[in-house]
Queue: 3 jobs
Job 1
Amino acid sequence: MRDLAWRLIAEGANASTRYPPEGWLEYPPMTRTLTTTPAADGFRMPAEYEPHAGCWMLWPERRDNWRRAAAPAQRAFVQVAAAIARFEPVTIGVSAAYFESARRALPEAVRVVELSHDDSWMRDVGPSFVVHPRGRVRGVHWRFNAWGGLKGGLYAPWDQDELVALKVLEIEGRDRYRAPLINEGGAVHVDGAGTALVTEECLLNANRNPTLGRAQIEAHLRAYLGVSTIIWLGKGVFNDETDGHIDELACFVRPGVVCLAWTDNRRDPQYAISADAWERLHDARDARGRRFQVHKLPIPGPLAMTAREARGVELRADSAPRRAGQRLAGSYVNFYLANGGIVMPLLDPRRDRSAAALLKRLFPRRRLVGVRTREILLGGGNIHCITQQVPAAPPAA
Ligand code: KQY
């Protein structure tokens, strides 16, 4: 590109110069949409605990999801962005209407770019990045239907969310695989060594890919994540409005080691869900044939939305309503692993300390930063759901 610009200047380009000039097509496109699959091209999705080039987020704006015109959520997002920016570069996408106020609110270390979106769940609408051992990075752009489309989805329309992964890949300058599957980044966790963790409640839900059975969904996950083994847990965290995303229920600490949201209270509906997940993990083997070591991470609360909180959310016919007393899908598993750091949600003064202590033990070489994120939980997710890591390109072998 630079060579071309210099040639045009040297040739005395002016307003009447033909543009694009002769020879333009000799220059490669900035990013391409590929018709192959990551697995076929030798790519795999790295685990979150592998090195990052940075992290992407989106700015919360919807008044029918975030109470009090999203102001308290915006403050929580600033805290999360600032915490992650201590460890790696953060970019946040903001609509034109909020660009100036978001820029003012965010630390200068955070890059702010104008990017339209319907809501702010970058984990789910952003690309899932994949890497190649020869140092290349590409992105998977899943199809998105707002967690269920017209059958239980959370809002409509979602056309701007559907474009977010494409826009992020354009800005990152990374080639794109357009996956034929409706899926969200929060619905899959990988260990980076051939294993994926998913839930039946989400991936087999009739509101995502009703024409595909388990075997076909597995085939797509193998092709687009570059994994060989898929571990199916049953349901996700109780009352999770995403239809049971794995990233609220369980995640990998490293290959062979899993952290699981847990309660010992048998009367809590979460008990049966977590106990079932524990048994499935106990019986499972990962891609290398290993058994899992499972660490139980007690859930906060149980937490529920207060009447005041529910009143602060604007009602709209085409989005899911908020109700006082509604159980919140609070989970400490929804943390973010940054380079050398772990950013965890603080949700319950009675449980935060013990959750932090367990996470410190599981990740002894990372600095732990806690952020109060009840305002994010009120919108339906937490730190992991609002972030998306860009992996560092592996050193070319
Ligand atoms: O990944 C997530 N937890 C997204 C939740 C979307 C909630 C929309 N109200």
Note: Residues 71-85 form the longest helix (15 residues).
Job 2
Amino acid sequence: MSGTLYIVGTPIGNLEDLTYRAHRILQEVHIIAAEDTRHTQKLCIHYGIGTTLTSYHDFNKEEKTPVLLEKMQEGQSIALVSDAGTPLISDPGYYLLTRAIVEGITVVPIPGPSAILTALTASGLPTDAFRYEGFLPKKSGARSRVLQALAEEHRTIILFETPHRIKATLGEIQNFFGTRQLVIARELTKTYEEMIRGSAEEILSNYKTQNPKGEMTLVIGGKPKTKRQPKRKMGANYHLSESISDDKTHVVPE
Ligand code: SAM
């Protein structure tokens, strides 16, 4: 019987955020496949987990995947973890997962933290529908095209960003999104956790006196929707001019 591939969510900063179930699985599996073994070693030491660690990342996935698949086919169970949060979410694992599915290996997700939902839930921006875009492209032309398209999105938008690019990104957001509200969720679950709210311009002006630092997730308000006014039914007092003037749109305040 083949083993199981567990996709295990781990903390995005605060080590207390490991679930009981994730802890048990990390202890019980034969191998933990980690994006960076030194990073995951810290988590294992904190929790007294002695399971063998092996590295699994984008640069070794092609040689490592067949090895891990063979181990699972022999009956061993493997936990896939990333440096922070949920594997496969802007993190390695997709290559292994898809091949495990093809091989008929059982895949079990062990849910845990992710910067996406952690940032969204405290952002104060609409949570009923959202669009996660991961990291923006690095090349300026591609970035502009993506941001231009995102500016038309009605749902709340979530992006990952790095401190050294955030100022440039805020400048571009200011161009494409104007005064739209956004939130920089910084250092979530850590000592210096902070939610910076405002327009791109307002947040940029704060960065004139201090340099951006730490892990950051951006949550941007969606484009306000326009709504057609309901058409009036034809009745005794109906005039053609009314039907034309009804066909207007107005902006629904968020
Ligand atoms: N798989 C992870 C998840 O589920 O959250 C995301 C991994 S992605 C490679 C790393 C990015 O996530 C960082 O550059 C940052 O944008 C965001 N991130 C990770 N930890 C964070 C934290 N503690 N606070 C804010 N953003 C964080």
Note: The chain has a mean pLDDT of 91.
Job 3
Amino acid sequence: MPVLRDLFIALSENEMLNDASKKVGLKFGTNKVVGGITIEETIERFKDINSQGMSVTFDNLGEFITEKSDAVKEKNNILNMIQAIDDHGVDASASIKLTQIGLHIDYDFCVENVREILDTARNVNMFVNIDMENYSSHDTTVQIVDMMMKEYDNVGTVLQSYLYNSAENVYKYKDHRTRLVKGAYKENPRVALQKKDDIDAAYEQLIRIHLTEGDGFTSIATHDHIIINDMIDFINEQNIPNDKFEFQMLYGFRKELQTELVERGYNVCVYIPFGNQWYAYFMRRLAERPQNINLVLKSITKD
Ligand code: FDA
């Protein structure tokens, strides 16, 4: 349903609706896919997930940050979450978005913020993933990732299979902990594959390369059971040990599949967004799978 996908992506980028959503709390069933507004309530979700045998990576929600003061606020929120995770002894890592901490405001300011987050995380032995956003941020994100990888050993990033350049970058990051995804944004055919079958085939190929070519830990981040089953077959054929990879899924999506994978002995990590800026995140989930609208309908009929 490409029309619906484009509509939800356009809605996710609407600044007015993003601003409005910050004021109303978790609405339309988003509490099923967002861990909480505050750090305290989100830590309780992390504990629930840990008690089900899964680790967590957190995402401080928020995009469209254009003021330095807002970027500092978001960075502090991330630092406070890292501290709270350490205080509570929960099994969680961080996922950060560079546009939230100044990428589009001032390059050096952004780099300084990333270093502060990586230093704080390193002090508590925590891994930080630098998420990959849309293509307009891609080159500067990669530049910062590469610089940080020379300075820190607790940092990794994401490869999006729809981007042509991931076929090269997978070799660059083969010895680093890397999350592999299909890609969530609408990108130009000059830079990205457009057909689902091509994106899926490129995705499986990237995973195979990352699992076998280097020493890096591979995070297979998908809800696609067909790809997960293909990859489990490949992992078994190649005798890849379970401590070299994990499956990652978003909080609230395909919970039964998450549990099944844990029961089969695989590492599963749940990506849990938190904070009041849930709107763009939720719209992108609807763009990926319009059936997720069920979450909205269920919440409306319940209330
Ligand atoms: P896709 O949406 O292609 O679905 C394939 C099939 O899986 C469906 O046809 C259906 O059969 C099944 N399926 C999928 N969702 C289902 C559901 N909810 N219920 C039942 N069946 C379902 N993107 C990005 O650009 N940068 C990033 O940094 C990240 N980070 C990230 C972290 C994590 C942990 C995840 C899981 C994903 C991301 N993504 C991302 C998003 C990613 O790029 C992609 O857009 C989504 O994961 C959707 O693609 P899938 O591979 O999950 O399956």
Note: Residues 131-132, 158, 160, 181-185, 221-224, 248-250, 253-254, 271, 288-289 surround dihydroflavine-adenine dinucleotide (CB under 6 Å).
